[in-house]
Amino acid sequence: MELPSPAPLAAPVAPAAGQTLPSRARDPRKAEFETNKLRKRLRRLVGQAIADYAMIEPGDRVMVCLSGGKDSHGLLDILLTLKDAAPVRFDVIAVNLDQKQPGFPADVLPRYLAERAVPFRIVEQDTYSVVKRVIPEGGTMCSLCSRLRRGVLYRVAGEIGATKIALGHHRDDLMATFFLNLFFGGKLKTMPPKLVSDDGRNVVIRPLAYVRERDLARYAEAMAFPIIPCTLCGSQEHLQRKQVAAMLRDWEKRHTGRLDSIFSALATVTPSHLLDRRLFDFRAVRASGSAAPGGDTAFDVDPALEEAIERAAAPGISIARSG
Ligand code: SF4
Q1: CB 3.0–4.6 Å: which of 23, 154, 170, 276 could bond 208 by disulfide?
Q2: CA–centroid distance, residue 33 to ligand 1 (Å)
Q3: Residue nearest to atom 3 of ligand 1 (CA)
Q4: Bridge pairing between strands 120-124 and 164-166
């Protein structure tokens, strides 16, 4: 069953560089149809992620961290529509942290949230001055800024009785973080869809884990969310994160399906075929004497992998294999 469209929204978002104007400007009916289709896809993906990782349980009070960027706006909007339709009863409360960055338009989010009748809390805490004081001129401030923000949000979660903290990280964030850890951290890890916070008191969820960033950008534009940029402080995104994001975008353009394969791999781990002795007891490996279905051929390449590689190189060509 399709849900009713949310109430009309506040000030429109200007299209980002390189983006086309909303098709709504050309043909309102077609634009509405496309927006509904996109909303359905987002709801399906968010619903799927919530179900797969048991993110929301009956009676949960979900605190949505609303920065004012396109991702957190999309998260809040989709969770609100799901809340109205879900068989499970849960509450949503939006929380925005006003970090006292110069030029922060403090009235925008309260007005928007009040118009949509969304319960919310605006928390004012000057983390901006702390970051400016601690980080030398020209340094990247994001890491300290996020740490301070996290501490405040955890505290607020306790104050408002939130049982889950929802963050707006999406599929592209998860993949970029995976490669950053791989390239620079020497670890196979990323932002998980659900985890216990480092203070041990909160459960953090990422309901957008299956959603592509470009869909969130299209949705934000179509819904005219009142976007507040995260660069008021003048800080720049980490260079490496930018480069990894560009690498992923380039792959997506040049190799159809590569990002889908990477994302699928993140959820399909075979500990016995990696090298981490904490995850698999290699000492206990013994010949069983009987063939295992799907067992390793050890000396050969993986036929399924070979087939997938050839399919990607020459779509439509089937590969004959001898027994
Ligand atoms: S861009 Fe500015 S506000 Fe955003 S995380 Fe970095 S330092 Fe904080």
Answers
A1: 170
A2: 35
A3: 230
A4: unpaired
